[in-house]
Amino acid sequence: MKVYERLEDFTTLSNAIVTTGTFDGVHFGHKKIISQLQSIATANKGETVVLTFHPHPRLVLFPDDNELRLLNTQEEKIALLRNLGVEHLVIIPFTKEFSRISSLEFVRSILVKQLGAKKLVIGHDHHFGRNREGSFEHLKEFGPLYGFDVEEIPVQDIDHVAVSSSKIRQALQSGNIEVANEYLGYAYSISGKVIKGQMRGRTIGFPTANIQVDEGRKLIPQIGVYAVRIQQGNHHYHGMMNIGNRPTVGGGALSIEVHIFDFEGSLYDQHIAVSFVGRIRNEQKFEHLEALKAQLVIDKTKALQLLTK
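Above: the chain's sequence. Below: its structure in token form.
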């Protein structure tokens, strides 16, 4: 996959099959769009182009909104789209100035003139251009004028629930990892650098790696204990993670700690990625460390059951 971080770096194609959107999560619904994009490209001997934006438009248009949390970092999104077999990924730097482009100008100058779009595939209820004025109906009107066809992919559902990035965020924020993973089509993950913590875990036989998450806007699932898979370089491990305030040892700021099964050594300053498999329990306060240790033994058994299921 070729990645272009400026529109100017892209050389216009003679037969571009294009889709556009934020693609946060690159979830089940997004994959359906990409699949159809590829089918059309194959049938018409074209090349697939995904046009997206960075940063997320809401972060630019509503900078004081501290509620929005993202499912993917930029690097994660690129990796997911690459794994889906996209040929060209164009990332437009999203600014307030860019947000003022009309829907007509977006179609005429960017999709048609710059990208060379001959066919456009969009998701259900897709809007674009200034104040989100552009819609599928607008695209159908513009198509004959500028020489492209447009196809709208209906909303994708799982168990009669429409899949969307918002619903995945809600599932993660309520700790429903299994539902989030089903909607995503892969295990949700976070990544970051291992930093020094209070080192209390090693005193009870459960040493942990404390993670400083890479991206401040990355969504952290609900406080609790989870079964997880860990990747560090080319090495893969099983483990369990606690997200919380450590009430048993006095509490404090939110911490993200992972205990890696059957691991010896130090990971300080190393970068690791952690994928969530299932939720084990809520965080709770114990009377003393021995009670916490007894619960962690139970947690490990449950985690292994989830990880080997």
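The domain at 2-162 is CATH 3.40.50.620 (Rossmann fold).
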